[in-house]
Amino acid sequence: MQIHLRDLDTHLVVTLEGTSQVKREKIDLLHFQYEIFTMHDNDSIDDMVTKFTKITDDFASLGDAINNDQKVRKVICVLSPSWEVKALIGSLKTHEMEMKVRKKMAPQKKKMIAFKSTPTISDIDNEEEDDEELSLLAKNVRRMYNKAKFNNRRRW
Fold first, then answer.
1. Which are the contacts of 113, defined by CB distance < 8 A and separation ≥ 6?
2. Domain ranges in the chain?
3. Which of 18, 42, 97, 137 lies at 20 to 30 Å from 79 by C-alpha?
């Protein structure tokens, strides 16, 4: 008996994932579990999150993932009344702390004042002196360069 790889692959897929009908049944069951999911009064948050994560992970493994917005809305809706107030107060406190940290971390904007200036005679004189000093410096650098260049030629 000769086994083809394609047949083996199909057999493994059907065995591991089931047929498309079985897959659809699993997804329908998960939808039902997702819709009736609630938090019981004696459940802890960890218990509730564990059950919820199992359902959503099973959805993802079957290729029918639930986006984060839907997950958040569902969790908020299923919280027991005793947790709703605690969660809301905790969220508000956390948000307030984050806002304080952001405010401290944000650079303080300093107000700067700019004055309009008009050139005076002394400013013009200073510019002329600066130009003269710059040209004198350029001449000296050129002389030093030429002198060094001349000295380097003598060595060879």
1. none
2. 5-105, 124-156
3. 97
Nearest residue to 35 (alpha-carbon basis) of 10, 59, 7, 60:
59
Query: In the chain, what are the helix, strand and coil shares in percent, each to the nearest 5?
Result: 75, 0, 25
User: 28-42 pLDDT, tens per residue?
Assistant: 898 999 999 988 778
Instruction: Quote the DSSP letter at residue 111.
Output: P
Tens digit of each residue's pLDDT (9 = 90 or more) over 95-113: 788 888 888 877 666 667 7
Rounded to the nearest 5 degrees, what angle is found at the Cα of 155, between the Cα atoms of 149 and 156? 100
Half-sphere exposure of 11 (CA within 13 A, CB side): 6
Q: How far apart are CA 144 and CA 147, in angstroms?
A: 5
Which amino acid is residue 50, in one-letter code?
T
Separation between Cα atoms, residue 47 and residue 40, nearest integer Å? 10
